[in-house]
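Anyone able to model this chain together with nicotinamide-adenine-dinucleotide?
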Amino acid sequence: MSMRVVVPKENRAGERRVALVPEAVARLVKQGLAVHVERGAGQAAWFADEHYAEAGAVVETDAAALWGRAGVLCKVQPPTEAEVDLLPEGAVLVGFLQAHRHPEVIRRLQARRVTAFAMERVPRITRAQSMDALSSQATVAGYKGTLMAAELCQRFFPMLTTAAGTIRPARVLVLGAGVAGLQAIATARRLGAVVEAYDVRHAAREQVESLGAKFLQVELDAEAEGGYARELTEEEKQREQALLWRSVEEADVVITTAQIPGRDAPRLITTRMVETMKPGAVVVDLAAESGGNCELTVPGERIQHGQVTVFGPVNLPSALAVHASEMYARNISNFIALFCADASEGAAGSAPAFDWEDEILAASVVTHGGEIRNAAIREQMAGGQS
Ligand code: NAD
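re: yes, here you go
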């Protein structure tokens, strides 16, 4: 009997994505896996049940039965506690888990002896690039966030020479030049804006310039382990704000994407800075969900502060559900191939085989065999209990 891969419908509010799209299902079925999909699982992302069936999936109506017979369950959002209780012992769960936000779910996964992998913990190494869901979804967020900024902006992005006069291009400032920031820069450039960008990592400079944007130089380099940024000292923060102030004042649009793993997003734009912005200027804060880069950001809200609009969108990838799902499905199917033995030879076995020497599996596993395998999460949960 082949291993059963299960795709339920996402039930968290506002989530339109689906973990596997029909094209990914077809590949898994070809590799010898049995794929079962909940009726309507892809509907919000415009993937019809018929297309899943054509791809070789069994479409099921009874969600509880689907969860109850899962071998490998593929999710986008973390499951609820009640959903975890439906899983058979020893099942595998793959998806974004956000353990710090959902400790109770992690405890249930542990109690049910589920092997749970967190896609956000896949290491940023070359071999794992095809499984890097943080990058694929950040690409979507950078693109969509820029379009939303263009929509809110009362000015053209491109320079236009028309019979009604010449229009100067919009000035867009992008703060944080990781995956989302670079995509925001590329998108704003494609729309014709003049773009400036800033990151605390010097390594970002070349990438920013290669996209045709100007890099703002601050005399500090805060690159830390794994290519991520570290938190700045108070003195560094002051220097950073002083440098950014002038560019913020001159911008028509500011798109912020700065994040520090495991911490609140750094505060880059104060209320006073917003108050010196041009009338009609727009701030789109892509770090809204982790505390915001702008002091005025309210997650999920669009607020008007004086003459400036500050928007803190949440779950942007869901707003581009078709391609976000396609990219995520690629990440997920590449990931599960790591433990579906012989999948590539078309002879997938009925039980997953985990090689804990594999650094991708070792870094992303959260629970296995009734234990919390991730030391940081274990400590955090122990702290929460005391
Ligand atoms: P992220 O989402 O953690 O943060 C976004 C950006 O914010 C980062 O570039 C970070 O340097 C920047 N930032 C943090 N504090 C800041 C501050 N105070 N002011 C300005 N900017 C600030 O980053 P990410 O997009 O996940 O990328 C993190 C790193 O991982 C980058 O070095 C990226 O190139 C690297 N990466 C590597 C791979 C790979 O090799 N497979 C894949 C993706 C990303």
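The chain is about 35% helix and 15% strand.
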